[in-house]
Structures are given as structure tokens and as C-alpha cells.
Amino acid sequence: MRIGVLTGGGDCPGLNAVIRAVVRKGVGVFGFEFVGFRDGWRGPLENATMQLGVPEVRGILPRGGTILGSSRTNPYAVDGGVDRIRENLHALGVDALIVIGGEDTLGVAAQLHELGVNVIGVPKTIDNDLNATDYTFGFDTAVNIATEAIDRLHTTAESHHRALIVEVMGRHAGWIALHAGMAGGANVILIPEVPFSLDRVCAYVESRFQSHYSPILVVSEGAMPDVSSGESFVLDKGVDAFGHARLGGIGEWLASAIESRTGKEARTTVLGHIQRGGTPSAFDRVLATRFGLHAVDAAKDGDWGKMVALRGTDIQRVPLADATRELKTVSTELYAEAEVFFG
Ligand code: F6P
After folding, report:
1. pLDDT tens string 125-166
2. Which CATH class is domain 2-138+280-324?
3. So where are the chain's domains?
4. Residue 48: its pLDDT value, please?
């Protein structure tokens, strides 16, 4: 069997570990051949390929990023894009695709599967918001990076008696903010799922200062003030090929709102792509490797239209359609656990 592999969407630590596991088991155990498609769906769309054999995956386990490249190319937004993909796969003699991606990349894979393309999905995103899997790889690394940043911000905040805000990634789901905020002892955690009251945030900031400590606030890039706040935050960075707003800026907005309401100095650190770059944590390397091994098993079984998923400590196969139907968000119960430590 000849299998194409692609990585799409925002990159995340562990992508190379998946590619390595797919190729090592695919070639070594099943005798498959692989074709690397470059830059997500751009690869099969434009016939942009690279050799992908055992020599190409040597030494990549601890490397961040993806040797295949990534993009947010959406074949459904390109005229005749899907037909071009099918023609190119046929011309290259590619029997199946292993698609490593998040909601958008796997959403395309699910639709192609409906059209008869043989696909297996592997869930990736630092945001951890893919349904049907307990965790995605990349998330643990991002949480560790954000937690270390919070630890460092605590000490400098104390020295200068300032409120420090950390803006972390998380478009629709606050998993990174919640986990890093809990691990780092944040005094306020703001997530997209729960619009925040500016009055309440300022009250937490003041009560923290009253206890002679400086507040650390962790805010997801997708968090928003509620209507009671009387002020709104407007995004103005356009949208990507899947129609998602480009986020960023809520941290700065919050700092100036806190300063004007409390009179206390407030500053913001935006962690941005630092959360996505660099070497994966040991947890993510193992999870990504296991996902890769199970994805190639699913291809061997011809179990198309499935995504490998972590359930407890087992890797299981779930329908791609289930995985992409809705996002996994933070529940109010879980958020309430973190709230105990606010202020
Ligand atoms: O989807 C993962 C993610 O890291 C989001 O948290 C973030 O909003 C987005 O990617 C940023 O994407 P880009 O690097 O394309 O701006």
C-alpha cells in the first residue's frame, strides 16, 4: 500500500513523533510505501510532495514543528480543489491518506472520506479542543511552557507590585489557560467558554493586592468580557481560510481596563507561538508515537474514516465525523474548581 501523510493547521510539538512512528511501523512491519505531502492540504492540491522513508524520519522524534510543513489551506475554498486532490492522489498511486490535524484539517478529511477517499485521522492541537479524544498531543508541552512563564511572572510581579497578565492560546476553548493557570497558581483565569465580568476581575485584583501579593491573571486569547462589563473588546485582524477570526489583543485590552478601574499598574505578556514551538514534552512524545502506531494499524486494517483517540490510557478508533462534529470545551464544573483559588 502507498500512503500519503500530511500535517495541517497550526503546528504543534509532537507532529514529527507521529510521522516517525507511522513510517517506522508502516515500512518496517507492514512493508508500506509513503509519500510526504507538503504544507497540509496544499500538498495534495498542488502535487507538492517529498520523499518519506525511514532515512527521512531518523532523528526527528524530539524535534518541534513538522518536517512536512503545515498550512491552513482549505481545499473547499479553492475552485475545483477537491477534484484536483482526487486526481493528484490517483496520478501518484496513493491509496490512502494519514491526516494529522485539528478540527479544520480533520473536517476536510471527514468530508473527503464521504466522497470515497481512504483517510485515517490523527488528532493534534495545542488547544486540546478536539472532541472524542481525552487529550491531543502538543497540549501538555504548551501547558508546561505557559506554567513556566507564570512561575517566572510571579516573582517579577511581586518585585514591582504590579498585576501581570499572561495571554495564552485557546481560540474557542480555555484548556491551556485552565491547566497552566491551575498549575501556576494564577489568581484569575479567563476562558472563552465563560464571558468575564470586568468588575469581578478588578475585585479579584484588588483583593490580591490587599493580601500583599501581586495578582497573576491568565487569559485565553478567545476570552471576552460579558455585557455587564459595559465595554467590549473588538477583534480586527481578519479571518483565516476556514473563516476563523485571527485572535490576540485581549490581554492588552484587559491591562488597560484594570489600570483605569483600579489605578494599579497592569502589564501583559503574550506567549503566542512560543507555546507551539520547540521540543515536545515526554508525555507528548509518547502520545504522538502511540497515535502514529495505531494510525498505521488502522490503515493496515482498511478501517477508513476513523480517527485514533486517547480514551483513558487506551488508544481507540472513533469515527472522524464524531471527532469533528463539535469542539470539546471546558465545563462550568471544571472552571468552578479553578475559581476556588481566584483573588
Ligand atoms: O489552532 C491552534 C492555534 O494555536 C490557536 O490556539 C490559535 O488561535 C491559532 O492556532 C493561531 O494560528 P496562527 O499561527 O495561524 O495564527
Report:
1. 999 999 999 999 999 999 999 999 999 999 999 999 999 999
2. alpha beta
3. 2-138+280-324, 142-276
4. 98
Q: Is 125 in the pocket of ligand 1 (CB under 6 A)?
A: yes
In this structure, the residue with its CA closest to atom 1 of ligand 1 is 10
pLDDT given for residue 172 in this prediction: 92
Q: Is 270 in the pocket of ligand 1 (CB under 6 A)?
A: no
Q: What is the pTM of this model?
A: 0.96
CATH for 142-276 is 3.40.50.460
Q: Give the per-residue pLDDT at 314.
A: 98
Per DSSP, 134 falls in state: S
| Ligand 1 atom at shortest distance from the alpha carbon of 170 | 6
Say how many C-beta atoms besides its own lie within 10 A of residue 114's C-beta. Answer: 10
What is the C-alpha separation between 146 and 142, in angstroms, rounded?
A: 6
- Answer yes or no: is pLDDT of 42 > 90: yes
Please provide the size of the chain in residues.
343
- Chain-centroid distance, C-alpha 154: 26
Beta bridge partners of 307: 121, 318
